[in-house]
């Protein structure tokens, strides 16, 4: 009986350690991100590995936690490689506070324009604006931005709304928000590269 209890306890400890190794926490947030995530396309499961996690804050208030993933087995060596890689990759944003959809759309547009002119992506920015403008994202909502190789970007507010924007160039522009020359902050960029 004692052997059974000891064995069961060891299994529980091992299971906890395995689970703990599969998620990453973020200082100042209750969000935990998995070290591996999946995206299903054309009935195929595509696994992606974590490159890093960060917190997006504005006026000292946390807006969202973010994790970056790239296709499993691919080992980018720099932010430029992540931007330019036409592979399955994902930015997973978990909201830390409520944000009006129009505000979110405006923020994404302004962020794209850090590196590009508005006339480069008129249709794409309109689609992104239409995705967010009619909804309200609340604390805990997930916004997943997934690059689909050769296609573009699948944008979704999980369980609420989604759209696929068929433009690889625009998808690249979204990654430049975090990894480009003009980005949302050196600290965010560094943190999103910390697991490479």
Question: Please, could you describe this protein's structure?
Answer:
- The chain is of the alpha+beta class.
- The protein has one domain (27-192): Chalcone isomerase (3-Layer(bba) Sandwich), CATH 3.50.70.
- Helix content is 35%, strand content 34%.
- The protein has helices at residues 2-21, 79-84, 101-112, 122-133, 168-179, 186-192, and strands at 23-25, 32-34, 36-41, 44-58, 61-71, 89-95, 99-100, 136-137, 142-148, 152-157, 161-165.
- The strands form three sheets. The protein has a seven-stranded antiparallel β-sheet with strand order 3-4-5-6-9-10-11. It has a two-stranded antiparallel ribbon with strand order 1-2. The protein has a two-stranded antiparallel ribbon with strand order 7-8.
- A hairpin with a 3-residue loop joins strand 9 (142-148) and strand 10 (152-157).
- Helix 3 packs antiparallel against helix 4.
CATH-assigned fold name: Chalcone isomerase
Distance between the termini: 46 Å
Instruction: Give the name of the CATH architecture.
Output: 3-Layer(bba) Sandwich
| Proportion of strand residues | 25-35%
* CATH class bucket: Alpha Beta
The profile of the biggest β sheet is: 7 strands, antiparallel
The domain count comes to 1
Rg from alpha-carbon coordinates: 18 Å
- Total beta strand runs: 11
Helix-strand blueprint:
Blueprint: H1 2-21, E1 23-25, E2 32-34, E3 36-41, E4 44-58, E5 61-71, H2 79-84, E6 89-95, E7 99-100, H3 101-112, H4 122-133, E8 136-137, E9 142-148, E10 152-157, E11 161-165, H5 168-179, H6 186-192
Antiparallel strand pairs: 1-2, 3-4, 4-5, 5-6, 6-9, 7-8, 9-10, 10-11
